[in-house]
């Protein structure tokens, strides 16, 4: 069994921030004794590709295994923690048309709707037979609907709802992030899998009599190193991200090449097999648009079949309890215009209309922090802004958006690698996560491994090994570690101002 | 190169053939020699193996397809005319007659769905006369016609297997035409067509023809468990014939994808979104990018007179949330409306059976065609009543199979490799004009023979080889009856 991440992180936060804490010093000495020789060995093994940072320790942790915060001499910054509510996100774009504002409540209803199993109208029901959640808003919750994981894990009030007999997978904790599970290989084989394996089934639910399918064996998967976890991404501003021109993404990729080369940064887009355009959503940039994301998520996360993904993921007899697709175009006479398309379409409107988060007011500290952010090279991947082109959605056109992402995927080293290939993104590659809104984010990195933003910075660093090259972030993070205390803290304060 | 060896292949034990190294070496050498010989010719003589059957040709009109289900509800019926309008509307760059008929290009293969999905009725496949000749220079466009498009040939789209280094995989569609110099694209003058001649000279171009959309609403609902159960049936017989096959899967939800020549598309809405952007250049809600952003003057908005309908930006086609409410069917973007159109299109109606076609079906099953061209699936219960629990006689297992070097196009899509293709559904081929993924033949007997090809250094034997041998070994009457059966579909 795995220690709870929050406890782990908190303990180390103390060690991290209090130089005089003898326990912390002792811990660090132990780390130094163990990690430095190991790191040295690793460095020799991978001398051709690995960059060996002079002061940081290596994170070689795999999903589900014991995690311990990296202890970095010289890093004194502390995470001030998420900015308190009220939410700085969750508003709709102010430039929505009159009609959009008028139909917005019905669209919001869709995002918030809790799905039971049995369908009684084209907009409700459809849960399962396998599922992770029963509404969009349940996981896309914080700091406002459309966001990411809330402080209390919502799955604990869901997994046994309506008589369901699920057990809670070991990696979910009541105060941890919502995590979904993917298997690297088809269990017991070397065939790549990569799909989401839903946490729960409808077995035992009063509205699912006759369905007997059981949950996946996550414990065995973990013990075989076959489990990869992913947390919830926020959706604010995604309508803007999806219309950014490919050519602008490419031009940005090709900018500052000398500086990037000095830092060991490359990165590349992930292309849609369909139209050859650049995909932008998901931890590995595996989804092209808000519409495809909405359809995908309805089926993958909730098991609600829809106009884009009309087939149940599990068709075990007794478990397919509704005609498919479960949400669909509503042909009823007299239907309101905005109720005509199915939920996949309407959920995509909700996402498209959400405005980006509003940063906190800037201070001298955050201003300097942004300068440091640029100086150490964070900005070489976390590109400050793009501008949207002319768009047919009047609210979204010609806007400069400060997303802090280049929308490319980068090698992040063995420490973050999750072993999953998705489209053009390799097992050690991840999309540069947009940083807008992280001022109120509770969990960081693809698997939500930490709630400490300083730790999240350090988690970008990882030496190469025989399997994967070094993280492209190593030099930038080393530069961060070499900043003086004030500059480090200002950079962290800047991030928490977003 | 179409096929390296036209002679019938006698395999006593097809499943072992891949392990026979000397054999493979010999075949590879033969293939290389044959390739060298064939690369200098663009057209290949039709050789029917040892078959004596004759294609009676497509059944004459009236169309046996193109009708909507008689079981649609009244409200579904009430929107079918509008859906047909949407599927048949001609798109302009800007300045089209209607708000939602804008957004063509900057690169495109055609300007409406129904120009290519045309025969024997709207929703079908290539008509006998190639529609592109009346489209490519519309509105003053200065396109030239690529060498591979012929006036009475199929509509085919071009893909380049590799990028210009001839090594890095490409696989994408390279649209034939651009909007340069069209009067409804003021300012766009410099976007040039792809260099198809160089692609031909470097053997780096492959073609795909239009697939029909009738009955696809049923195909998208067929349960994965039924597809897999069918895959796992008759295994002994399949193995003895060298037939395997596997599904292509969606990266999104992990379910089986079914549409397109390599089963690369998940659903009708996914397909609509892709085709709108790829074939017409109309960016849409699923694929909101213009298909070439390299020349700013060829991107919206265009400087057309105020008040003219124009594309304001990406996506060219979108829902009408921004505007005053109108009829519900006019609210969603075209991509959902194309979906509904295709979903409501009933499968083709076969011709009345005869003694010949009844025996032909028996032969079809006896020699093993049906082991891939699986006669039917039944849909599960559907929220669209017309599609619920319907037996779909599609003659496909919806799997992809190795078809040998003769058909291989070196384009890998999802789980489908460069030599793998989805078993094409055969319903409606009685009125089909062109066959195989690249429309290489209009002779259905040749199409049967084109399923056969022996391995080379790159790809294994076609899984169809032994079945085609069996076809060739049938008596002339049985061969002809089988062909007549196909033309009755």
Oligomer: heterodimer
Summarize model confidence as the mean pLDDT of chain B.
Answer: 90
Uncertain runs of chain B with pLDDT below 50, 5 residues or more?
Answer: 1-30, 32-48
Helical residues, percent of chain B:
25-40%
**Main β sheet profile of chain B:** 2 strands, antiparallel
Compact summary:
With 498 residues, chain A is mainly α. Chain A is 29% helix and 5% strand. Chain B has helices at 21-38, 74-78, 80-88, 113-116, 196-201, 216-221, 224-231, 235-241, 268-279, 334-344, 355-367, 444-449, 465-473, 476-487; strands spanning 107-108, 156-159, 177-178, 206-209, 248-249, 256-257, 377-378, 391-392, 400-402, 420-422.
Q: Topology, pairings included?
A:
The complex is a heterodimer of chains A (498) and B (489).
Chain A: H1 5-17, H2 22-45, H3 98-112, E1 130-131, H4 136-139, E2 179-183, E3 200-201, H5 218-223, E4 227-231, H6 238-241, H7 246-253, H8 257-263, H9 290-301, H10 343-353, H11 364-376, E5 386-387, E6 400-401, E7 409-411, E8 429-431, H12 453-458, H13 474-481, H14 485-496
Antiparallel strand pairs in A: 1-3, 2-4, 5-6, 7-8
Helix pairs in contact in A: 1-2, 3-10, 9-10, 11-14
Chain B: H1 21-38, H2 74-78, H3 80-88, E1 107-108, H4 113-116, E2 156-159, E3 177-178, H5 196-201, E4 206-209, H6 216-221, H7 224-231, H8 235-241, E5 248-249, E6 256-257, H9 268-279, H10 334-344, H11 355-367, E7 377-378, E8 391-392, E9 400-402, E10 420-422, H12 444-449, H13 465-473, H14 476-487
Antiparallel strand pairs in B: 1-3, 2-4, 5-6, 7-8, 9-10
